[in-house]
């Protein structure tokens, strides 16, 4: 039987702990954390945010962290459930959200359902079959690498990143500069677009602020580049989710 990892306390208890952590880590957001603001479509505010969630990147980072923190990195366990309410609290911190978008791939998971319930625009794409290299192990006896050279047909994500890139560009076109909150550590070039890093550069070039929120183990090195961080100091920040992982566990 697969080990099951879940929180031993209620959401209200976890929320109380999480709010205190957020107050300590984000004192500038104290007023909105304690008294969340609602976005007014007729009157934009300087602290408006546009939230975009790459579900796979966050979910995989979360699962890997939960397993590693318990010494279960190589153990096959039941999938830990991520509390999207907790994640949204970390991302939004009570600030008025003009847009709240989640994009992911089937199957429709519990966190996706929760995201939809609390008002996120949720797009869940079917996976497509594609040929991919088999991540086999090198044969110890022969020293050959035949397994790694094999091609397997498997179902993979397609179009998730590109839809998020498009949604971000919509915000740039349709709204005055404020803050993009991107929940994804992905910085690679996508299959059909230049990738999240290029989307972030577009935001910064147009006087937007950007927060990249991700787990350390899924944060692309481009976001750690010293020259990039120096160039956009005060406009760009990285927020790591590692310290909040247990609060995000349902």
UniProtKB/TrEMBL annotation:
Residue stretches of biased makeup (Polar residues): 136-147
Single GO MF descriptor: guanyl-nucleotide exchange factor activity
Gene3D superfamilies according to UniProt: 5'-nuclease (3.40.50.1010)
GO CC entries: nucleus
GO biological process: protein import into nucleus
Location of region: Disordered: 130-151
Protein name stated in the entry: Uncharacterized protein
Organism this protein belongs to: Ascodesmis nigricans
UniProt lineage: Eukaryota, Fungi, Dikarya, Ascomycota, Pezizomycotina
């Amino acid at each position: 039987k697969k080990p099951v990892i879940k929180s031993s306390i209620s959401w209200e208890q976890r929320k109380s702990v999480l709010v205190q952590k957020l107050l300590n880590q984000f004192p500038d957001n104290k007023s909105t954390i304690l008294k969340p603001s609602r976005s007014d479509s007729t009157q934009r505010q300087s602290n408006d945010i546009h939230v975009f969630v790459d579900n796979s990147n966050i979910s995989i980072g979360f699962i890997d962290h939960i397993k590693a923190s318990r010494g279960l990195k190589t153990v096959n366990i039941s999938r830990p459930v991520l509390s999207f309410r907790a994640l949204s609290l970390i991302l939004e911190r009570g600030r008025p959200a003009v847009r709240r978008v989640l994009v992911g791939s089937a199957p429709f998971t519990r966190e996706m359902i929760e995201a939809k319930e609390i008002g996120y625009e949720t797009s869940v794409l079917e996976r497509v079959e594609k040929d991919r290299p088999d991540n086999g192990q090198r044969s110890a006896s022969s020293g050959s690498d035949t397994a790694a050279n094999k091609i397997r047909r498997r179902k993979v994500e397609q179009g998730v990143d590109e839809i998020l890139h498009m949604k971000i560009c919509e915000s740039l076109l349709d709204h005055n500069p404020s803050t993009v909150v991107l929940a994804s550590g992905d910085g690679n070039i996508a299959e059909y677009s230049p990738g999240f890093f290029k989307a972030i550069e577009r935001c910064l070039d147009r006087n937007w602020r950007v927060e990249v929120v991700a787990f350390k183990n899924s944060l692309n090195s481009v976001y750690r580049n010293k020259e990039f961080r120096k160039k956009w100091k005060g406009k760009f920040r990285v927020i790591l989710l590692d310290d909040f992982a247990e609060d995000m566990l349902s």
